[in-house]
């Protein structure tokens, strides 16, 4: 019985491929292309723009032409653009641990704080080259946030500001360059955008592989969100809350970052006009479509309702209960994508990557 | 960025470089690919496909299998149960008939790997002595007709043994002792802070020839490839901090110590502290490794350690050498043939069913 079923599936797939190659409309290719043009490319462009502004802000702030509040606002925009990109980290930015250059999380041992101290002691006249050749921990937003927000750094004191400013500007420059390079890589001839739009290519043998890759990074990001919320809630530490393991805790951008990431994942699901992954769910599974729609709306509405900053919520039991409810929302979303949506789209997720053998 | 040639889905003709094996007498046919595979509902199969995509068999099995090893001159293959399975499966590789459910003795379970001796009379597996949890055991089975009969066991001189392969003399086994202690019916790691990974050379009579360790105590030595000149390469899985810069490949060249393979930092980071399968193409002197957490297949020159190719293949799994290069499978996408004979390597998707391929493949 089973062998026949497998072989029939093979034939059907092969047939589908032949049809796919000839027919003008391959829904998987259409969705992949639409998401690339309308969701992915704009998100990478937004991220690059936010970093361009942050780099400019670091220069202006250090020249005393900008207030700290404005510098912080520029940082927050870059942080949220990066958070929103998490479910879209397909291709080069999601590979080779490049993401560590942007954000170092979880920072269980306060490496950011400690390494900044020792770097500035070693290199008081820090240059761009010093930053580029040094630890990735200090090249990104986590270190930038430390300088702008940590209590140990009093930027109203001009000597302190002068001490930290070379680092701030070097990070701004590094982030600007990295995000501009990535956008360029996406847009290049035979770059990611092309590879997600025309099949076959050297990366994807067929459009189904591109959709599988898109869903894979989305599922990874939802799982990552669970970790980013679960770690400070103490889910990996026997229930003891660990507030300093929250993402962007110094700027208290924890919940806005989670919302931005959820918004990115939701965009991948919806597309701009219902042309996202949602469009590929077979019509007879309208119930699944509805449940995923509702799961996104529920989680994001909870975030709107919470209204309090993360640092306050994590500090007491009632607040933690609300964060825990949010965790359950994200967990539900993660499961819906990893199992039911994956199955509906014919995608197998992480079979060997999670094998451990 | 380096550009490589790419061919669309085609009927690539492939020749297996595997020496020996009954299939060589049927040389008009495409090589037979053997692997464990799941279906979309999570049921487990032992499968055989010709590389042109034609199905030979898909036999349902109770336990998920890991590696498979073909008999040197009979149409038999053992699909070895994945840790902590107590079953492995002897299969007729012509039609998939399940000839025997091989059950481990009480207080033993399989680790997913096994090998036939070149005489065809013996089969060896790595096993866990669960009465003394983690103690590595080499199970010895005698081939009688179309059955395997357990005849004894030896020590692997380590904890949590995983893959084992033959050295070129055909009498010496190289064994990757992963170093991780697990208990019966469990995959939970019990000794992360007291791991003892090692690479052991063992005569099949049980005589220990050498035992070597890497400096990093949490760097589990798991998978192996052996070249015709006796060069051994191992792939590691690191259980420590994700940031630790740990060598995930190691090499033991003939007459030399077991040591880190010079791995580029970008590749090392891409691997995400995890390697899956290894294969060596002897005529081209190339090493291929799958890194499913990095979604990349890497190919190096075995002698110079220069990186030759990096292929994006999500959830890449098994890899095996063929005449032109390598065949790679994936849990998620299509299997690929990587032709390494030209200056630019050419990657071609194969017409095998996509996805759900388990960790290892063998070509006969």
If you had to describe this structure to a student in words, what would you say it looks like?
The complex is a heterodimer of chains A (357) and B (364). Chain A is mostly helical. Chain A has 13 helices and no strands. The longest helix of chain A has 36 residues. Chain B is an all-beta fold and 364 residues long. Chain B has 1 helix and 29 strands. Chain B has a 5-stranded mixed beta sheet with strand order 1-28-27-26-25, with no helix packed on it. The radius of gyration of chain B is 19 Å and the shape is globular. At the A-B interface, helix 1 and helix 9 of A face strand 1, strand 4, helix 1 and strand 29 of B.
Write a concise synopsis of the structure shown.
The complex is a heterodimer of chains A (357) and B (364). By secondary structure, chain A is mainly α.
The total beta strand count of chain B reads 29
Mean pLDDT of chain B: 93
Along the chain, the helix and strand elements of chain A come as: HHHHHHHHHHHHH
**How do the strands line up in the largest sheet of chain B?**
1-28-27-26-25
Return the average pLDDT of chain A rounded to an integer.
92
Share of helical residues of chain B: under 10%
Secondary-structure-derived class of chain B? mainly beta
Shape of chain A: globular
The Rg value of chain B, from CA coordinates, equals 19 Å
Largest sheet of chain A: none
Q: Indicate the radius of gyration of chain A in whole angstroms.
A: 22 Å
Please report the two chains with the greatest interface, counting residues with C-beta closer than 8 angstroms to the partner's C-beta. Answer: A-B, 40 and 61 residues
């Amino acid at each position: 019985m089973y062998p026949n079923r497998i072989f029939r599936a093979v034939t059907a797939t092969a047939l589908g491929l032949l049809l796919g190659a000839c027919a003008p409309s391959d829904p998987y290719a259409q969705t992949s292309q639409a998401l690339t043009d309308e969701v992915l490319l704009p998100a990478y462009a937004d991220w690059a723009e936010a970093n361009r502004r942050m780099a400019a802000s670091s220069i202006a702030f250090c020249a005393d032409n900008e207030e700290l509040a404005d510098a912080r606002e520029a940082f927050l925009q870059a942080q949220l653009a990066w958070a929103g990109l998490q479910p879209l980290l397909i291709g080069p930015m999601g590979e080779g641990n490049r993401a560590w250059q942007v954000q170092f999380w979880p920072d269980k041992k306060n490496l950011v704080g400690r390494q900044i101290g020792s770097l500035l002691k070693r290199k008081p006249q820090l240059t761009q080259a010093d930053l580029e050749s040094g630890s990735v921990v200090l090249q990104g937003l986590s270190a930038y946030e430390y300088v702008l927000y940590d209590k140990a750094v009093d930027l109203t004191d001009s000597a302190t500001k002068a001490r930290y400013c070379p680092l701030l500007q070097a990070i701004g420059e590094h982030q600007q360059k990295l995000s501009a390079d990535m956008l360029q890589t996406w847009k290049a001839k035979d770059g990611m955008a092309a590879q997600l739009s025309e099949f076959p290519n050297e990366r994807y043998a067929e459009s189904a592989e591109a959709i599988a890759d898109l869903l894979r990074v989305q599922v990874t990001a939802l799982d990552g969100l669970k970790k980013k919320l679960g770690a400070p809630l103490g889910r990996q530490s026997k229930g003891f809350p660990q507030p300093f393991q929250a993402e962007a805790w110094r700027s208290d951008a924890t919940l806005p970052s989670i919302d931005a990431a959820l918004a990115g994942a939701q965009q991948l699901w919806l597309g701009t006009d219902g042309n996202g992954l949602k469009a590929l769910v077979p019509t007879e599974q309208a119930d699944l479509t509805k449940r995923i729609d509702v799961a996104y709306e529920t989680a994001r509405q909870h975030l709107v309702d919470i209204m309090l900053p993360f640092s306050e919520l994590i500090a007491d039991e009632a607040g933690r209960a609300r964060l825990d409810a949010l965790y359950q929302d994200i967990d539900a979303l993660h499961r819906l994508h990893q199992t039911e949506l994956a199955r509906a789209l014919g995608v197998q997720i992480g079979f060997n990557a999670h094998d451990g053998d | 960025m380096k550009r490589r040639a790419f061919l669309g889905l085609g009927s690539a003709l492939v020749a297996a470089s595997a020496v020996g094996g009954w299939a060589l007498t049927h040389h008009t046919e495409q090589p037979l690919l053997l692997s464990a595979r799941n279906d979309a509902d999570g049921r487990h199969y032992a499968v055989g496909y010709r590389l042109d995509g034609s199905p030979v068999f898909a036999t349902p099995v109770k336990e998920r299998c890991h590696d498979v090893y073909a008999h040197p001159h009979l149409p038999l293959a053992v699909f070895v149960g994945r840790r902590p399975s107590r079953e492995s499966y002897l299969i007729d590789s012509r039609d998939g008939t399940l000839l025997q459910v091989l059950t481990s003795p009480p207080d033993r379970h399989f680790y997913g790997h096994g090998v036939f001796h070149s005489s065809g009379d013996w089969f060896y597996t790595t096993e866990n002595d669960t009465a003394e949890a983690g103690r590595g055991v080499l199970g010895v089975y005698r081939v009688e007709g179309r059955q395997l009969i357990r005849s004894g066991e030896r020590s692997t001189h380590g904890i949590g043994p995983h893959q084992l392969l033959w050295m070129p003399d055909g009498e010496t086994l190289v064994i990757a002792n992963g170093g991780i202690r697990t208990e019966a019916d469990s995959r939970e790691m019990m000794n992360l802070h007291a791991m003892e990974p090692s690479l052991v050379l063992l005569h099949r009579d049980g005589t220990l020839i050498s035992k070597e360790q890497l400096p990093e105590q949490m760097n589990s030595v798991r998978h192996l490839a052996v070249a015709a000149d006796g060069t051994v390469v191992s792939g590691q899985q690191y259980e420590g901090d994700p940031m630790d810069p740990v060598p995930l490949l190691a090499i033991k060249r003939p007459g030399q110590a077991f040591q880190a393979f010079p791995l580029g930092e970008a590749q090392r980071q891409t691997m995400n502290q995890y390697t899956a399968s290894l294969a060596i193409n002897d005529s081209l002197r190339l090493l291929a490794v799958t890194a499913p957490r990095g979604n990349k297949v890497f190919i190096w020159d075995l002698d110079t350690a220069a990186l030759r190719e990096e292929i994006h293949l999500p959830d890449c799994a098994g890899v095996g050498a063929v005449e032109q290069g390598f065949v790679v499978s994936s849990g998620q996408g299509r299997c690929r043939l990587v032709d390494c004979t030209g200056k630019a390597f050419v990657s071609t998707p194969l017409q095998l069913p996509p996805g759900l391929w388990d960790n290892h493949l063998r070509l006969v």
